[in-house]
Specification:
Helices cover 27% and strands 39% of the residues. By secondary structure, the chain is an alpha+beta fold. Strand 9 (133-135) and strand 10 form a beta hairpin.
């Protein structure tokens, strides 16, 4: 019986690793997860989401689970893997079904997330327009509209618990930000 359980555990772990899209120099990876709601799957025109996971204490954890939103990573693994900075810039769409006077409709909202490559700390999230820009140093991002984002100051605001985005102050993310 013990051999059977061990065999099943090994096979399950192996299939998870095979299905993952790895990100170089990172404990973060993208994995396909089945969309459970058939109506959403049909309206979204896909059967799977691509979600962000992190290997933490030998276990895989959905990095954005604490936000309690259905989401899908929009960037290709090639685009993510080509990012050489210690902070990843990812485009993520949260989605759902909205009730309208004419019935139920699918909607999604794209956003931009900046995530520490090593720890999985979500440093910043904003509209998807913020994803368009370039790195100006190691921890500074300059949008195409000229806005500067200083991630060292943002990380400090999370650790000092003065950040305006209360979701980023939740225990799951805060503990990752402490790791640096």
């Amino acid at each position: 019986m013990k051999k059977l359980i061990l065999c099943v555990a090994l096979l399950t772990g192996f299939s998870v690793v095979v299905g993952a899209e790895t990100i170089p120099d990172s404990s973060i990876f993208i994995e396909k997860t089945k969309i459970a709601n058939k109506q959403i799957s049909k309206l979204a025109h896909r059967k799977f989401n691509r979600q962000i996971f992190i290997k933490d204490s030998g276990k895989s954890k959905n990095l954005l689970d604490f936000l309690n939103e259905a989401y899908n990573v929009e960037d290709s693994i090639e685009d993510i893997a080509n990012q050489k900075n210690k902070i990843l810039n990812l485009q993520v769409a949260s989605y759902g079904i909205a009730e309208t006077p004419i019935g139920k409709t699918y909607h999604d909202v794209a956003s931009c997330m900046f995530i520490d490559r090593k720890t999985g700390c979500i440093l910043y999230r904003a509209s998807d327009i913020l994803c368009v820009g370039q790195w100006d140093g190691i921890e500074s991002w300059k949008t195409d509209e000229g806005e500067m984002v200083d991630f060292s100051a943002i990380r400090k605001s999370i650790l000092d618990r003065t950040n305006a985005d209360t979701d980023l102050l939740k225990r799951e993310n805060y503990s990752r930000c402490e790791k640096q």
